[in-house]
Amino acid sequence: MKKFLFIVGDGMADRTSEIRSFTPLEWANTPNMDYIAAEGINGLLNAIAPGIAPGSAEAHLSMLGYDYTKIKNGRGFFEALGAGLIPMIGDIVFRCNFATINKEYDIIDARAGRIRERVRVLADLIKRELNEIDGVELLFQESLDFRGSLILRGKNCSSEVICPKIMQEGEKAIIKPVKDSKSAIRTTKILNEFIETSYELLRDHSINVTRKTQNKFPANVVIPWKGGYVSDLRAPPNNWNLKGACVGAVSLIKGLCKFINMTVVDVPEATGYIDTNVYAKASAALNLLEDHDLVLLHIEGPDEAGHDGDFEGKVEIIEKIDCMVGLLLDQIAWEELYIILVSDHATPVDYKDHTADPTPISIYGTKIKKDKVKAFNEKAASKGGLSRIRGERIMPLLFDLTK
Ligand code: ZN
Ligand code: ZN
Fold first, then answer.
1. Ligand nearest to the CA of 306
2. pTM recorded for the entire structure
3. How far is the CA of 13 from the centre of ligand 1 (A)?
4. Distance (Å) from CA 200 to ligand 1 centroid
5. Residue 240: its pLDDT value, please?
């Protein structure tokens, strides 16, 4: 029985720059990933298409064989599902960040210093005090660290609002309507009131007073962003008929996998950051492989380090992933298990956001004919036997290569 293990280092691919002639993957010590590349077939992947910098959701949907263009619900929907909310058709769903703003509502830190401790206390306050505005029900749910979700449920709401691009410098925590429609203006008012009230509630909270004395950014506001209208609660079909499961930390990936009917397990030691416990995730993946055909093992850390512009951090998490790959290689007991080692997109440390650079992909397993590539990195992969492929071709390729 064939089994497939996708190991996705989110945003793991990178690019060289004027100050650095090597990428984190080239610099990191990765004997186990290099083994997979050397024993497998390699190529360069554009999860969507050349020239398109994908979001993680559409990249993963494509790699798992789904037509992402058919799923209109938006990123907030997946976040909400992963966070444990139950969106309904007609809801407007946003992803949210606890963030740091100043009195002028300038965003100072979009992740509130990556707050992790006692977020629950702040979130409970938001849930208690901000559950309805102007007759619209508000459902807020915190997820991992600074992340959360917000559902607007009520009549005359619209997703046609412009949220701040919170990772960009100079943005204000203010929502604007896309057009002059009544519902867009009303939704904008509700969201801005949500932001303002969250600021009033959190600004002088004792947790934030303490954070400031520790020179940490206070989580003094909740900013909704990346909103979408929920129009479909059922995933489009795929052709593979595989029983899938997912091991991941971040709500986006967990929610997306729930949506496409994969089993989703929680690994408490998974943090979605450089300090994640990759061994706990690997052992969860091995357990799931016992009774699933396809397991997605998602590691968020490289993307976070990329967004932070943290080269050393990215190297550190890549080397951790490598150790995890080593552990998996040691423990694999199935004759026909295929490993797909890949990154969903590049998040270059010098650019601090996703780019359209192609990412290395290696496919390893019994029936795979190896090529001449000896290492897992961007440059080596360009000489691989798969050449350059798109995410949507991965599943057909897997079934063909393993015939
Ligand atoms: Zn990603
Ligand atoms: Zn990212």
1. 2
2. 0.92
3. 10
4. 33
5. 85
- Render pLDDT for 368-394 as a digit per residue (tens, 0 to 9): 999 999 999 999 999 999 999 999 999
**Distance of CA 301 from the midpoint of ligand 2 (Å):** 10
Q: Which residues of the chain have pLDDT under 50?
A: none
Locate 151 and state its tokens: 């559902």
Ligand index nearest the alpha carbon of residue 111? 2
- Centre of ligand 2 from the C-alpha of residue 347, in Å: 7
Which candidate, 328, 287, 237, 256, places its Cα nearest to that of 7?
328
Structure token digits, residue 227: 């909103």
Expressed in angstroms and rounded, the spacing between residue 163 Cα and the centre of ligand 1 is: 20
Domains of the chain: 3-70+236-401 (3.40.720.10), 78-229 (no CATH)
Distance from C-alpha of 14 to C-alpha of 217, rounded to nearest angstrom: 28
Provide the b/e sequence for 144-163 (b: ≥16 CB within 10 Å).
bbbbbbbbbbbeebbbbbeb
Region of residue 226 (phi > 0: left; psi between -120 and 50: alpha; otherwise: beta): left
In three-state secondary structure terms, 213 is helix
**Shortest-distance ligand to the CA of residue 10:** 1
> Which residues have CB atoms below 5 A from the ion given as ligand 2?
303
- What's the order of all strands across the beta sheet hosting 359-364? 263-265, 244-247, 294-299, 3-9, 337-342, 359-364, 41-46, 387-390
Point out the ligand nearest to the CA of residue 252. 1
* Cα–ligand 2 centroid distance for 304 (angstroms): 6
What's the gap in Å between 397 CA and the centre of ligand 1?
Answer: 22
pLDDT in tens, 81-96: 999 999 999 999 999 9
- The first and second tokens of residue 311, run together, are 């080269």
- Nearest partner of 318 among 355, 364, 274, judged by Cα: 274
